[in-house]
Design goal:
Layout (H helix, E strand, L loop, with lengths): L11 E4 L2 E4 L10 H5 L2 E3 L2 E4 L2 E2 L2 H14 L8 H14 L5 E9 L13 E9 L6 H4 L3 E10 L16 H12 L4 E6 L4 E4 L3 E6 L2 E5 L8 H12 L4 E4 L11 E6 L3 E8 L2 E2 L4 H16 L4
Parallel strand pairs: 8-9, 8-15, 12-13
Antiparallel strand pairs: 1-2, 1-7, 3-6, 4-5, 4-6, 6-7, 9-10, 11-12, 11-14, 14-15, 15-16
Helix pairs in contact: 2-3
Length: about 290
């Protein structure tokens, strides 16, 4: 994995219609997306040269932009093709793809009716975080003081850059205290998600997961639900309160980066990554390696 600065790498980025050298993919400091968070993005995994669930990710990107009040110029088919071209141009076998769309610098102020809508797609080598064996040790989380906001205060069903500010704050605080990540409650005090992944719990052989009514219903989340149901595991989407966490035996996160990652603790609540975690890690790995088409 390349550990150099993301601004200083070899390779190519697809930028407004063409592949450009990585270091030349720059924007002006007064771009609206930087100052007013008018930006949406996706995170996608490449397995064996193919982008997993590409169509679903592209459709969500376009819908996120629509929710923020702007339209991406390219069609879904054009974005899909550009994503594949970017993967090929950078010789990615196992990696990550980041499409991002944002309002440009034509107008500077809250109103940006005439700003150009830009689209860029980057891809880089990014192998899985952990082997299946290492994953089973579980990661340590803490509860964040920041809460997922109400849908009446921010467009929670978009994958918008502005929604991640409190995720960065939460994860930084957790890491500074020796934890791996944080769990966020929602504005009502219910368990919501981690800073960049959805959360599942196991109790009496069934999966319990928060209803995604003020945070994203992740593409990996839906994939894992389908895999669990295919195994005959009951999946219950419901309100989960923090004090219920002591009644669960297993816990894991799901997301493009996290894939399926067991959790060993959330503050004082302890979990033992077990059979269901192990089964779903294996099922997910088989799914992405075997069924990579969107």
């Amino acid at each position: 994995m390349d550990t150099s600065s993301f601004a200083d790498r070899d390779g190519f980025i697809w930028f407004n219609g063409k592949l450009v050298p990585w270091r030349d993919a720059n924007i002006h400091v007064l771009t609206h997306g930087l100052h007013y968070a008018s930006s949406v993005f996706e995170g996608e995994r490449v397995y064996e040269g193919e982008i997993f669930k590409l169509t679903e990710h592209t459709d969500r990107l376009i819908n996120s932009a629509r929710i923020l009040g702007f339209k991406i110029e390219q069609s879904a088919e054009e974005i899909n093709q550009a994503s594949r071209e970017t993967v090929i141009a950078n010789n990615i076998v196992d990696g990550y793809v980041r499409p991002v769309a944002w309002r440009g610098s034509e107008m500077m102020g809250v109103s940006a009716q005439n700003n150009k809508i830009n689209l860029a797609i980057a891809a880089w080598v990014w192998p899985s975080y952990f082997s299946p064996e290492a994953r089973m040790k579980g990661i340590r989380l803490k509860l964040s003081p920041w809460k997922r906001p109400s849908p009446e205060t921010i467009p929670t069903q978009s994958k918008a850059a502005g929604l991640y500010m409190i995720c960065t704050l939460s994860k930084h605080e957790a890491e500074q205290e020796g934890f791996d990540d944080a769990v966020m409650l929602d504005y009502r005090g219910r368990v919501a998600e981690a800073t960049g992944a959805n959360i599942f719990f196991v109790k009496d052989g069934a999966l319990h997961t928060p209803t995604p009514d003020c945070f994203l219903d992740g593409i990996t989340r839906r994939t894992v639900i389908d895999l669990a149901k295919a195994r005959g595991i009951e999946v219950i989407e419901r309100v989960i309160m923090p004090d219920e966490m002591g009644s669960f035996t297993e816990c894991f996160l799901t997301g493009t980066a996290a894939e399926v990652t067991p959790v060993s603790s959330i503050d004082t609540y302890q979990f033992a990554p077990g059979l269901i975690c192990q089964q779903l890690i294996g099922d997910y790995e088989s799914c992405v390696r075997r069924k990579v088409a969107a």
